[in-house]
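Following up on my earlier message about magnesium ion. Here are the inputs again, as you asked, copied directly from the submission form:
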Amino acid sequence: MFGWVKRLFSKEDAAPFFCSAVMPAAGSSSRMEGQNKLFAAVGGIPVLARSVLALGRSELVDEIVVAVREQDLLAAADLLRPYDLGKPLKIVVGGKTRAESVMAALRECSDAATLIAVHDAARPLVPLSVVETAIEKARDALAAAPAVPVKDTIKVAEGGVVQRTPDRSTLFAVQTPQVFDRDLLTGALQAALDQQIPISDDCSAVERLGKTVYLTAGSYENIKITTPEDLLLAEAICESRGESL
Ligand code: CTP
Ligand code: MG
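Thanks, got it. Here's what our run produced:
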């Protein structure tokens, strides 16, 4: 029934490429009131496992490299062992910042990798179509990221005083996986790290170099688990899908 979807995204029709999924998972969950959000269960499955499986089920993803905190290395390996991805999975030690964790994982990617899909381990519910649309776009255009229009009106403020109200129709919330040509991403992150420029996502490192980043269709279900109520929302989304994954 979904044969056309498979054909649409089939690697056989396109020029060969090797896409590594890099998953930063070395954060400290400081906004989660004491629990490590990546080990919390959603619909009975830990967030980290869900994120790995969500990327792993795409036939456009050839391997997954997860970066975790040193103290979580064994627990992460134990947690992921039962899942058979049918493709290589590596777990490495991340860094002090998200960018350093991404760089640590990048160093362990296969030499064959030409595309890198960076996906927050804290986004366990990313739909397959969001993953594959971003990968397809980056393959053609070097840099792509899923996004959704913002629902709220956003204010720019300083010291609690509104400075201006940007036109909402121009504002998008960017998600992951953010997908890049490998050399472009490595160069952009290294430049930002060398110049000690804090970056909150990978796109911004690439944007700094003046490179074009294309937005693809994201999903409001592709939430990032950040505060405890996000787990409740994630549970509800799982339930509405009527499936465990
Ligand atoms: N991350 C990482 N290495 C870091 C910091 C963050 O790999 N040094 C990862 C997190 O594990 C997460 C993703 O980057 O999967 C997005 O970060 P965020 O949602 O901010 O997670 P935390 O940094 O863990 O949370 P907080 O900022 O609330 O402490
Ligand atoms: Mg953080």
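One observation from looking it over: Confidence is low (pLDDT under 50) at residues 1-8. Hope that helps, and feel free to reply on this thread.
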